[in-house]
Design a protein that fits this description.
Elements (H helix, E strand, L loop, with lengths): L3 E5 L3 H12 L4 E5 L5 H10 L2 H4 L5 E4 L10 E4 L15 H18 L4 E4 L4 H12 L6 E3 L2 H16 L6 E2 L2 E2 L7 E2 L5 E2 L2 E2 L6 H12 L1 H9 L6 H15 L4 E10 L5 E12 L2 E5 L6 H18 L5
Parallel strand pairs: 1-2, 1-4, 2-3, 4-5, 5-6
Antiparallel strand pairs: 7-10, 8-9, 10-11, 12-13, 13-14
């Protein structure tokens, strides 16, 4: 049976994710938005690129949740993006209403789906999706760590003038300024960056990673990032739909792992056909562990503002 992926929200992030899903032939792609004509137009435009990009598959643009029935993966990008001067937390009131509505409608038609939550504030919206859906924690995943790690990797490769293909990195914690990039686990062809860069340069890369989203918001002025978020979504979706069992940093609901309980926080997980199939607990130094717990505390503070 062919896979089906639904992307809710046909803005820049959703449309980019739909494009990559189609190009990778992950299955039937449904692009849904409340604005009439937008998902239909973008879906048709994407379909017409098929002969050039050499992909085949069904692409549906729609305003009707009935068209999402039987989705294996549902990506939630819907909501308002950040603008200059705004933090991710400033979006909580508007986006919580959007995510609540989306989840309730999706589960009517796809009760066995796996959610990938992208709407900000990410960790809070993932928590909301889990509570509203009643799904087990393996089937609600926040997309944050893959994106934050990709930014860290890009900055490392740029600084060292090496291939991004050889650069790996791990960023844990909440998706915000308190995120926790881990230099010890950042490598170039297996060589830790602590062997290749001074502490001063590493600290600058960490700061830039933490403010990576804000840097783009400041440049664009009327929106936020979408190419890297779209690619991050599809890396996760592909691992689930093709049961690749990749180890990726994702926002997961913790039940005591890393000494954290009852919230979504970015940690390394194994992603396969069952969603989160394992939460990987890596050894952290006291400083790293303290930073992760501080990041979790920031998530808890924001969660307290959520009205269920």
């Amino acid at each position: 049976m062919k896979n089906k992926i639904t992307i809710v929200g046909a803005g820049h992030v959703g449309a980019t994710a739909a494009q990559l899903a189609a190009y990778k032939e992950l299955g039937e792609v449904v692009l849904l938005d409340i604005v009439e004509g937008v998902p239909q137009g973008k879906g048709l435009d994407l379909l017409e690129s098929g002969p050039i990009e050499q992909f085949s598959g069904k692409i549906i643009g729609t305003n009707d949740y009935k068209d999402t029935a039987g989705s294996d993966v549902v990506v939630i990008t819907a909501g308002i993006p950040r603008k200059p001067g705004m933090s991710r937390d400033d979006l909580i009131d508007t986006n919580s209403k959007v995510v609540n509505s989306v989840v309730k409608q999706v589960i009517q038609y796809s009760p066995d789906t796996i959610f990938i939550v992208v709407s900000n504030p990410l960790d809070i919206m993932a928590y909301l999706a889990k509570q509203v859906s009643g799904f087990p924690r393996n089937r609600v995943i926040g997309m944050a760590g893959v994106l934050d790690s990709a930014r860290f990797r890009a900055f490392i490769a740029e600084e060292l003038d090496v291939s991004m293909e050889d650069t790996q990195a791990m960023v844990l914690g909440g998706h915000g300024d308190s995120m926790v990039p881990l230099p010890r686990y950042a490598t170039v062809s297996g060589i830790s960056i602590t062997e290749l860069l001074s502490k001063e340069k590493i600290d600058k890369l960490i700061t830039r990673t933490r403010k990576g989203g804000g840097e783009i918001v400041g440049l664009l002025k009327t929106g936020s990032a979408y190419y890297a978020p779209g690619a991050s979504i599809i890396q996760m979706a592909e691992s689930i739909l093709r049961d690749k069992k990749r180890i990726l940093p994702c926002s997961a609901f913790l039940e005591g792992e890393y000494g954290i309980e009852g919230i979504f926080v970015g940690v390394p997980v194994k992603l396969g056909a069952g969603g989160i199939e394992q939460i990987i607990q890596i050894e952290l130094t006291e400083v790293e562990s303290s930073a992760l717990k501080s990041s979790a505390d920031e998530v808890k503070k924001t969660l307290a503002a959520l009205e269920m």
